[in-house]
Amino acid sequence: MPQFPFRAGSYVLFAEIGAGTLGTVYIGCELTEGQTGWQPLAVRILDGSISQRPDAVRLFLDEQRNAALLQHQSISWLHDAGVLPDGSPFMACEFVFGVPLREVLRSQQVGMLSLQQAIYLCREACDALHYAHERYDMTGQTIEVVHGQFSADSLLVDMEGKIKLIDFGCLGTRNATVTNVAVPARLQRRMSYMAPELRAQVQAGMVPNIDRTADIYSLGALLWELLSGETLPVPENDDPPPIPGTKRSIPMQLTKVVLKAMSPRREERYPTALALRRALESEAAAVMQGASPAASLGQIIATTLGHRIEGWQSHVLRWQQVDLLQVPELTEPLSSIPATAQGPWRSGNTNVGGQNAYISQRVPTSISQRLNLQSGGQLVGGSTSIRVDLSQRTQVAQGSEPTSLLRKPLFLGLLVIGILSIAIAAIVRISRSGSEQWSVYIDSDPRGAQIRVNGQVQGNTPKRIVRSGQPEQLNIEIVKEGFEASRALLVPQPGQSPRIEVKLRELPAPQ
Predict the structure, then answer these.
(1) 40 within 8 A of 28, measured Cβ to Cβ
(2) Residue 409, preceding peptide bond in cis (omega within 30° of 0)
(3) pLDDT, tens digit, 9 for 90 and up, residues 215-226
(4) Sequence-distant (≥ 6) Cβ neighbours of residue 384 within 8 angstroms
(5) Is 0.70 surpassed by the pTM of this model?
(6) SS (H, E, C) 21-50
(7) CA end-to-end distance (rounded Å), the chain
């Protein structure tokens, strides 16, 4: 296994963060010419067993082409997809600083979420999936991007209570059947979320042929688990799901919504995710009165699992100080390394460290650093525990004078150098504390509008403007011929990535 960090094509990879049905996922960044800052990306590289099949690679890239059209605030955006110089197919998407909803539900500190929080999560997921189902291509034709593997694993929640859907365009390249092997373990735990027609095709080794109603079923399965506080068993013989509510009383109206969404017959389910959302809002109007589930959910995440998110944020800040041009390039194709040799841990989440996530980072010093995200040792930069093990230790012979080392010129010289190094590192850290990266994503409908920031042209929509340093007030103007200009005033905050999405108003035709 190569040492981190290393360069694979135009990407610098810092750590492995998990493995899925397709391959291994790393946290990294793209190396570009004249780069002054970078944002973290989740880079998924296909396993060699899949990358050696041209039909599977072609299908994978087709899925990424459709996923690239998704630009929604609750969907992890796709940055790039293609083939690395070593022949390994890959995709790079937004790295989300959040935790999987499944881990939130399994946490003993969290317990069972409230009805308001359950309805809020399902409602937000409905919005994201309906957007994907109704997405159209450049010709205006609806392409109906289906998730196909939606579950509590693919829904990430941050410390503000906001959600992000991941793994769009990763339908296991029509699931794991491309490898002609049994269903992988990670896919098996999603079987309860799978619609009966999809489950039967996967178990039979067939290439699934699904539509949006499969995602509707998965939404109903998620709502079942959120309302009941239990793990949904895998139905047998296409039987309807059991009635939720063994741990608490659930309004009958919400139970009807769940059973309709999870109907074994696809034609009896809600036709769209929007219809499910409207039914949910209508039946839960009395439950949601005066509730602020996003804020309360974010508070739960921050107090119980926030240390993990802060740990990744701390890592990224440290990695942003690494000289990317000095990172060595990988000489062996990543896809040729067996999955069992790509790391000592396995995580069900593709965007945060697993239960025993362990990162070994190579740094240009003689100090070996081990970063253990789950240890409870000394907190450095958040919740990250750093163990420093000097490669050379000076042993004092038993019975010798403890102060005899101070009389050796070599030791005194090393001591002075060490003190100076610590002082210089502290000064550099202080000087860089104000250089945290921030970005602004700007998009318009229709696209191709010119972007002007503080009077200077920055390109056309859609565009992500990435900067580092102290944020300043931005006067943003979006201009397109034949449309009324749109203006916005924004003051970004360090570490944030606000989005500006406007619908331009067409000017009336001249008389």
Answers:
(1) yes
(2) no
(3) 999 999 999 999
(4) 310, 311, 314, 315, 371, 373
(5) no
(6) CCEEEEEEEECCCCCCCCCCEEEEEECHHH
(7) 70
